[in-house]
Design goal:
The chain is α+β, with helices and mostly antiparallel strands. The strands form nine sheets. Strands 2, 3, 4, 5, 6, 9, 20 and 21 form an eight-stranded mixed β-sheet that branches. The longest helix has 27 residues, at about 1-30. It comes from Jilunia laotingensis.
Length: about 700
């Protein structure tokens, strides 16, 4: 009994001790053990998803998130064995770092690493700049660096960096992220579609097990969607090159070019260039959608369409423009050729062909002076005053005054009719002309056509109609014919092409200096051209708008010529002809064949099933010669080569000529490209050791 008593007593005391210890742990030592737990478990660690890519309409990557790294060294990890290994391989490591990062010499890397080793730093920056994933992997292969970070000490800090593989192409439209990516996107497509692109954060907790942290996923991150943009990289490149060349030529300050697909409103290219302080041109703002400027003569098309639609005029209606100057309520209205005596009496078609200010303003003032609201209502019917509600932010809203608004004077109507006293962004002007090309259907411009996840389309952005019919079919037919003639026999000839027909309208306007008006200091000009092509079945519409200081200023010669280059190059890029059309099936195609090694030539011709007639017997030896085309086959002839004499290589390609001459110990110097047209040492000349022969090549 006594024995059981002691057992029970002992168990009771142990139980009391456990309870007491638990109480001490729970209350007295609570903070201590909480700190220990925090060291071993980290809750709610945010895991960032991968941001979606922006892909061009032709399948090229335009914006993507790529990792960048900073690399560090922990000189106390794995010591002292690691330090001995580091000293042993120091020269090899530094030479390797120099190969990866050529801007620093191996000696500089050695001095830098030795300095960190002396300090015993645990987080010593090896290279001052962020490096790419490829550079990081190359550095990781170096001795010591290729060890586990706890043993070797080499470790990295990863960053997610947004990259644009095509550099400046459509950079402002694509948009940017803040340097601190946690702040999100700043502008462009990146901002407008940020919700789709950024995905959703995940949550993990980290738990220390056997001296290693394990990441345990609680909520997995959801990567962002990829966006398929409407931008075509090839067309964007064409537009940027054509525009920048002209900006440099005329010393312009701002240039815009936008190319749009007529039926869908898809923006295939958008270029916004501003002159920097260094004289170069860069994308700084999205001028195409934000610039609030008086459009000038491109607006005359809308004015004439209102009068056509109201039945006041026809294309043959005549106006006496006199000597090119007409007083309008105390202010002179001038045509561009007023100093040459003006255009006299001309019809409506000719008014737009020569962009007559007097003709256009006279028509609008004559029929709408007593009721200017009717003219404004006509513009509104065509939706030229409506904001576009684009997919990206920053668009300007057209400013077209009505007669009940402040500052609407007697002179407002005639000057409004020629594109002054109104403000319309270039994109809105283009949308209006695109509607003319699209049989009167005005569609909303768009920059993104779909969102994609894991190769599947998750959301589409269909074409949206702003106005199903901007005017009657009769007015459309009339304005189509007029705009065609503006390019083919008017001031817009530089915008035309010999390959296909173009329609459109030029614009040249002085740029107001705000409160100072147009007469203060040097006058700045806006030159523009807006149109579409091909005229018979329009596929693309385009606007080119350029701001420049001083004269000369010509919408046709400056903006029109840029439009012409863009149109021809886009048309050629878009042209798809069946190869069968290139071959006359009734004839035998015999190719042109260079001189060279005849056995190889015969082998190639046989593989291509091209008839050939060798005039030699090879016997397994090299046969050098020439070829010429007969009506139904290629004749192959040998060229006798004397061992110690310079051979003739006329007609050979560079590769064969160099091989043959160098096999005889002659040094070769080449000029030009194509076939050999002349050689500096005549064939049959005895070879001298080490001599050099000069070969001139030409493609003609």
């Amino acid at each position: 009994m006594t024995r059981y008593f002691f057992v029970i007593l002992l168990m009771g005391l142990i139980g009391v001790a456990i309870v007491v210890k638990a109480g001490i742990t729970m209350f007295a030592e609570r903070q201590y053990w909480q700190d220990v737990a925090d060291r071993f478990v980290k809750e709610n660690v945010t895991v960032k998803p991968n941001r979606g890519n922006i892909i061009s309409a032709d399948g090229k990557l335009m914006a993507s998130s790529l990792p960048e790294y900073r690399i560090y060294m922990d000189f106390k990890a794995g010591a002292p064995a690691k330090i001995d290994s580091l000293k042993k391989h120091m020269n090899e490591i530094c030479e390797g770092l120099h190969q990866i990062f050529p801007d620093k010499s191996a000696a500089e890397f050695k001095a830098h690493l030795q300095k960190g080793m002396k300090k015993g730093s645990r987080n010593y920056l090896i290279y001052p700049k962020r490096i790419s994933y490829i550079q990081y992997k190359e550095a990781k292969r170096l001795p010591v660096f290729n060890m586990n970070k706890y043993k070797g000490g080499f470790h990295e800090l990863a960053y997610n960096q947004r990259k644009k593989p095509f550099g400046s192409l459509a950079a402002r439209t694509l948009g940017d992220l803040y340097a601190d990516t946690a702040q999100g996107a700043k502008n462009g497509i990146e901002l407008a579609f940020d919700t789709l692109l950024k995905g959703r954060d995940g949550i993990t907790h980290r738990q220390k097990v056997m001296n290693k942290y394990l990441n345990i996923v609680d909520i997995p991150p959801v990567d962002g969607c990829d966006l398929i943009s409407t931008i075509d990289v090839g067309m964007q490149d064409i537009c940027e090159k054509a525009l920048v060349d002209k900006l440099q030529e005329i010393n312009a300050t701002v240039g815009v070019a936008v190319l749009m697909e007529v039926a869908t409103g898809e923006v295939k290219a958008i270029v916004n260039m501003m002159k920097g302080v260094d004289g170069g041109y860069y994308e700084m703002r999205n001028n195409a959608i934000s610039d609030m400027l008086e459009p000038g003569s491109t607006f005359k098309t809308a004015s004439i369409m209102v009068a056509l639609e109201d039945g006041y005029i026809t294309p043959d209606y005549e106006v006496d423009t006199g000597n090119g100057i007409k007083m309008m309520y105390g202010r002179p209205m001038k045509d561009h050729n007023w100093y040459r005596g003006g255009y006299g009496r001309i019809n409506v078609t000719r008014i737009l062909e020569v962009s007559s200010n007097v003709g256009t303003s006279s028509i609008i003032d004559q029929f709408y002076h007593s009721n200017p609201q009717k003219f404004v209502d006509g513009l509104k019917r065509m939706s030229i005053d409506q904001p576009l509600h684009l997919q990206i932010a920053g668009e300007g809203k057209p400013n077209i005054k009505g007669p009940k608004e402040r500052y609407f004077a007697k002179t407002t109507l005639p000057w409004m009719s020629i594109g002054y006293e109104t403000q319309v962004p270039p994109m809105n002007i283009l949308t209006f002309y695109n509607a003319i090309a699209n049989n009167g259907v005005m569609v909303r411009p768009k920059f993104v056509k779909a969102a994609m996840k894991d190769g599947e389309i998750v959301e589409e952005f269909p074409t949206e109609v702003i106005n199903p019919k901007i005017c009657s079919d009769r007015t459309l037919q009339q304005i189509h014919e007029i705009l065609y003639k503006v390019v083919h026999q008017g001031l817009a000839k530089p915008a035309g092409s010999k390959q296909f027909s173009v329609s459109g309208k030029t614009g040249t306007a002085q740029i107001s200096q705000g409160a100072a008006g147009y007469k203060t200091g040097r006058t700045n000009y806006l030159v523009s051209f807006c149109g579409y092509f091909p005229s018979e079945a329009p596929k693309y519409s385009c606007i080119v708008s350029i701001q420049k200081p001083g004269l000369p200023a010509s919408g046709g010669l400056m903006a029109g010529s840029v439009f012409g280059k863009i149109a021809e190059r886009v048309y050629a890029k878009d042209l798809r002809l069946p190869m069968a059309n290139a071959v006359d099936t009734n004839s035998v195609v015999i190719p042109s064949v260079k001189a060279g090694e005849m056995n190889d030539t015969k082998r190639v011709l046989d593989e291509l099933n091209i008839a050939n007639q060798p005039k030699f017997t090879s016997k397994g030896k090299e046969i050098w010669g020439s070829a010429h085309a007969a009506p139904k086959s290629v004749i192959l002839e040998s060229r006798d080569l004397m061992r110690d004499f310079v051979p003739s290589v006329i007609g050979m390609g560079a590769k064969d000529a160099v091989y043959l001459l160098e096999s005889k110990g002659i040094k070769v110097h080449l000029t030009g490209v194509g076939k050999v047209k002349s050689q500096s040492i005549a064939n049959g000349t005895r070879i001298k050791k080490g001599q050099t022969i000069h070969l001139v090549l030409s493609e003609k």
